[in-house]
Amino acid sequence: MSEPLLSETIRGLTKEIERLPGHTLFGRVSAIQGMLVEIGGILGQLSVGDRCRVIARDQRRVPCEVVGFAEGKTLLMPFEPLDGIGLGARVEVADADPVLYPADGWLGRVVNAFGDPVDGGPPLPAGERAYAIRGRPPPAHTRQRVGGKLDLGVRVINTFLTCCKGQRMGIFAGSGVGKSTVLSMMTRHTTADVIVLGLVGERGREAREFIEDDLGEEGMRRAVVVVATSDETPLMRRQAAYTTLAVAEYFRDQGKEVLCLMDSVTRFAMAQREISLSAGEPPASKGYTPTVFAELPRLLERAGPGRIGQGSITGLFTVLVEGDDHNEPVSDAVRGILDGHIVLDRAIAERGRYPAVNVLRSVSRTMPDCNSEPENQLVDRARRLMATFEDMSELIRLGAYRSGSNAEVDQAIHYQPGLDDFLSQRKDDATSLADGYRRLAGLLDLDDPNLDDPTAPPTGAADG
Ligand SMILES: Nc1ncnc2c1ncn2[C@@H]1O[C@H](COP(=O)(O)OP(=O)(O)O)[C@@H](O)[C@H]1O
Ligand SMILES: [Mg+2]
């Protein structure tokens, strides 16, 4: 090795060693303002995203993250409450790039944003490979294309909004319209190998009920749940979203078809907003800072197809539409990043039809290409009937439409009750892709599109 190259290497190594955990660099807390901790002393050693631990009076170590610098001070935010931390408290530098060691033994378990178990069970096994909590997606050119259909076990989505392996979809709805319920149905009924579910910023009671009642033992069997409730710090809530993806990436690399569900991306965006505003970033749209809109694609892009030979991460992300305003900035941003959106409609839920999917306002961008021609024809036919009924619904309800005046409208009215029935599905009612097509064709008096398609799974095989 040449002399300059050698010294270059040594310099590199020294830098690496400086960044190693355990190599103790200290600073001192010089101010605390709200959630923001200012420290002095180790300025040159830190960059944004690095981790520190502030030592409280009772020796508790409070993990923090560097969120910015101002006027010669380093700004930290804590992952835990700041109780017991005062001026002059010691700050030690922790590992620079936080990682997780997921393993198959995580299935069936509930973990927090640090990947530590919170279900009262035994310690988790550690896998061999480190996964960066803030991992990056594989470079676009090394990724496989979006694959074949993934059976999500929800009839209206399977048939009208078919999701392919590696696709990313948003579920948009106001509160209480059934987002969480749809996710629990998918967790129990999908044919994916592994489900990684991130519960970000929900109330503690909701998260608990969801895990214990909606998922139950059956839903948990092949699932890992990452949870950060609304009472946790914004850093914990934001990191729960990153950790969800990191765990999904582990299973993807094991060649598994992973279904990654997140409830909700809005709470992730809100957590990032709190962090940015505390660090002094000026707000842009509705109080959301530019960083929020930079972080959203970085998070959501991590779902998607893996490299050749790997599995894929199919992502379904819920978006809370505040005040049922589907044009608020987070909805808009997320809709632009994803390959489709599923809109849940309060009016439909109020009529008692669950899942309250508004088929006409929802779209799966990959569906037309992954469907066979007969499947597309069947779905288009049903959509047209629904659209016609919707256009005319006012007149029909008022009794102003005279039957016989228009053949298409007559048919729409005729098939409406059957379609409505088809779209509703009880929580514990499992259904398969093939079953959906067969049933839809049957009710529209058409041929089952899969009957003469040799590549289709045998109809009736996967009847739940
Ligand atoms: N498939 C369903 N069958 C029956 N009721 C449902 C269904 N989905 C949702 N609901 C009803 O809607 C309520 C709110 O659903 P939830 O999933 O908690 O909404 P969100 O997560 O959007 O706030 C549930 O408590 C339940 O009463
Ligand atoms: Mg919910």
TrEMBL record:
Gene3D superfamilies: 3.40.50.12240. One of its GO terms (molecular function) is ATP binding. Its main location: cytoplasm. It is an enzyme of class 7 (translocase). GO terms for biological process: bacterial-type flagellum organization; protein secretion by the type III secretion system. It is found in: Cytoplasm. SMART domains: AAA. This is Flagellum-specific ATP synthase. Residues 165-349 form the AAA+ ATPase domain. Residues 445-464 are annotated as: Disordered. Its EC number is 7.1.2.2. One of its GO terms (cellular component) is bacterial-type flagellum. Probable catalytic subunit of a protein translocase for flagellum-specific export, or a proton translocase involved in local circuits at the flagellum. The keyword ATP-binding applies. It catalyses: ATP + H2O + cellular proteinSide 1 = ADP + phosphate + cellular proteinSide 2. Pfam families: ATP-synt_ab (PF00006), T3SS_ATPase_C (PF18269). InterPro entries: AAA+_ATPase, ATPase_a/bsu_AS, ATPase_alpha/beta_chains, ATPase_F1/V1/A1_a/bsu_nucl-bd, ATPase_T3SS_FliI/YscN, FliI_clade3, P-loop_NTPase, T3SS_ATPase_C. Belongs to the ATPase alpha/beta chains family.
